[in-house]
Design a protein that fits this description.
The chain has eleven helices and ten strands. The chain has two domains: 172 residues, Sandwich (Jelly Rolls), CATH 2.60.120; 100 residues, Arc Repressor Mutant, subunit A (Orthogonal Bundle), CATH 1.10.10.60. A hairpin with a 3-residue loop joins strand 1 and strand 2.
Length: 284
Amino acid sequence: MSPRSIEMRNRLGASGWRVPPGPLGETQVDVHQDEHFQASRQVLGVSVAPTFLEPVDYDFRVLLAVEGRATIGPLAISPGQALVLRGDLNLASALGRGWAWIEWQLNSSALRTPVLRNLTEKVQPAHSVYWEMLTAATMSLLNAPMLAATRSSLHLGRAMEQLVVAALLSSEEADPPNRADTPTLYRAAQTLIALKFKDQSFTVEALAKSLHVSTSRLHRAFATAGTTPRREIERHRIARAQEQLQPGRTNAARAERVAQSSGFRSRTQMLRAIRRASRGTVGV
């Protein structure tokens, strides 16, 4: 199994996703469906580009990106982001290999209210505790044997519907620069750093943009924890590099590969960062 597959499996497992053993070479789908709603999770074993996101039998569908990136219609969606779509839309999409997502399909009058209708066909941040509860409940449901249709399942469908609405409202209410509280912003930023630090283009500015806050607002959130965004990004990259480097057995070519796969632009940049860390002066 490739290192990338192992890392992806570990990240999915951390979210409660039960991934079958073996390499992630095939598309895997888990679905729970009843007359009230449908919940599913999918991970693509191959690239599917271009394709179409076809209409569904429910009024709305909500997609939460867990791993990888995709383009749906004109919108790009990355991990930690959600997208609300009308169920009748047929959208051209580019779905990359390794893209993993959770999807809820439902008929909800709440989603027809003006506030939530304004969220349709817009990418939303999905970092609140409501999204965490919704994801945890969905994973528990999909990890369990298929439930029979009973009176209790009717209430389960309604509860899941309300969790979806609560999660979406939390995104709408988070006017990020002003109303997102500092602990929530800090946790959301740390989550994104853990997901994206291996991307060489991932900078403090890119992190702030993903969270819809200014860099100064982001720095204030990290200052309360005694650190900085750059320091945390570099800390993850250093830890990743040190896991792969073998003292006395790493030549220049291998060190360059380790640097690239850890988010550094070059071997030189990586070695400088490691030296700073050994002196206790990781990037500020």
